Amino acid sequence: MTQVPAATNLEQTPLPSPRGLDAEAKRSFLRMISHELRTPLNSIIGFSEVLRQQPCGPLAPEYLEYAAIIGDSGTKMLKMVNQIVEIVRLESQAAELDIHPEPLESLVEEVLLSLRQEARALNVRLAAENPEAMPWVHADPRALKIVLANLLHNAMAHAPEGEVVTVRARRIGAEVTIEVEDHGPGVDPVEAVRLLRPFEKGHTPGRGPDGAGLGLPIALLYSRAMGGDLDIRTALGQGFTAIVTAPAA
Q1: 100-247: what fold?
Q2: Fewer beta carbons within 10 Å, N or C terminal of the chain?
């Protein structure tokens, strides 16, 4: 008599996570993410844009609204997928960095310019403090811009309307410190440590689009990959300051 195999108890079977995968498994995970998720998401976003342009004739207003929702949701999902890929690459040390001397002033200016429209929509102002005196750093320019953009997104989401989010930098010995400061509600310092872990969110909701809790962890991992670090200075009711350290050039 043929015996029927016992059912697998999934609740007791440990499932693999990106953090626990070996190098080859992580490469396979990245390939799967890139192909199986990015490709259909790009198609969804692209076709939603086609619908909004109405090339085959006018659509009813409610269908245009549906197409906009589909496109916005697809864009949000694609952003999260890209962030997960970044986390896996950084944790597996698979990210390729080109670290060399870079003028911090131009990098900060480029990031602030790219976020100007978003800041205007949130009614906050972005400002660089004394930019012409900013030092040079040893960094990968793309990675450092990702760090700054993530920190500024976080700051803009929690800054009160009409307030200024400030970026400042100075050289201290062999290091450069870059601060991104907002005057929002702040968080408990104990909770701030938790926010540096992937998918962790604060208890205070931001005013911008709800994120997946990956911005600060990506900033931390990129900072460390470039030979620096990320720290947080905050307290309830006293704002939030993210402090990046990087080797001075």
Answers
A1: Heat Shock Protein 90 (3.30.565)
A2: N
